[in-house]
């Protein structure tokens, strides 16, 4: 039986999903993709998981698709056929997803970073959309990457395949923040702590609000948002939050987790 390449651990409200195929630079092999999708589904379904952290072992976060597997394969056999499901799970997860990068990301790995709600990286990490340099197109990852990136930078980096550093990744919207390597875990913990302060239902609805494209007139949008807001003010989480504020205590969802 093959060794497990993806691990899921839920501790104190944080579901940590670890890519653990360092000998393969955490490339998106068929086994890793299959296990990653299962881990995402399990974390999203677990009510104890308030935040999902996507991280890795070894010096590379993710090198993209496993080219050894895709070389010589037909279009139907290639990993690009199931990779969209992984990106979609991360993008639409009602539980906030945070990427932790201690090493570089390439191609599909960058697509996963872009799909996450928050991305925290060591300032020594590097990134590249290397697809055109091997004769392919960054098509699937464009669905998650392009909404994040400054348009001019997207054109430059998609077309040239040039490697860029973490500082630029922050400037163009790919990363949330980049910190010295010895501060990475503390910064991840800081974001996890902040995300745990949000009510689960309110976080899920807020994330959906961020993802939905505006439709209708301004008056119609205001009316829809007023209904959403009123429902949460009158709902269980809103009422508990207001009671906790008045009583100067943490709300139930922010109580310390064993």
Automatic annotation (TrEMBL):
InterPro entries: ClpP/crotonase-like_dom_sf, Enoyl-CoA_hydra/iso, Enoyl-CoA_hydra_C, Enoyl-CoA_Hydratase/Isomerase. Belongs to the enoyl-CoA hydratase/isomerase family. This is Enoyl-CoA hydratase/isomerase family protein. It comes from Pseudonocardia humida. The lineage of its organism: Bacteria, Bacillati, Actinomycetota, Actinomycetes, Pseudonocardiales.
